[in-house]
Model the fold of this input.
Amino acid sequence: MARFSVIIAAAGRSTRFRDPFYKKPFALLNQKAVWLYSAEKFLGRKDVGQLIVVIAPEDREDFMSRFGANVAVMGIDVVLGGEERFHSIERGLAKVSSDCDFVVIHDGARPCLAEEWIEDVLAVGVDSKAAILATPITSTIKHSEDGKSVTKTVSREKLWLAQTPQVYAKALLQEAFAKRDPTLPPTDEAQLVEALGHPVRIVQGSPLNVKITTKADLSLAAACLKALPAPKFDAPLHPFSDDHLWR
Done:
């Protein structure tokens, strides 16, 4: 059985979230922190051997105060991130266990995951060594030079919106970071793997797999959670999976 190390990216600045008390991965969604939704989904899997949460250095004290009990009981490794997302993922990658041959990367601000999507992308990732969830773009795409008026309409044909989870063979991802062009900061890890010339497989995701960016997105996420396919419980829930005592 393939063994996975999961890196949850939660070190962003949350500039557009505009909450004086919470960054978006740590905000409350139905009285539970956003990042815990996906963490629990992954830790409920027998093939996940490690879960790493990458946070900003300035959030460490507050994070451990709020979630220290969850971290201890769930066996989570906490890593301090860097200036940009790819720096943070690279630091998480350095802490991946030698027992895990595949790495899963997931946005801490994407709480609406269905088990079947995880299952599908992990299976394709093992087969191909690189796979991402993505959805085809269905809206009309406009290009604007100044952000005020339309320059042209861009064809949406063959365009996809990348999501997470993204799954990579550990050795391939390590090589991709080692050979990264320092002049081109990547916006996701697939971009680094693409630069190696290795194909990245697309697994069709769902519009329900929303990424929280603004506070208004919390209401959208709450609705998406209700619309997710029913989970299949084949493992016991963690003691802190539903309570709010430690948040």
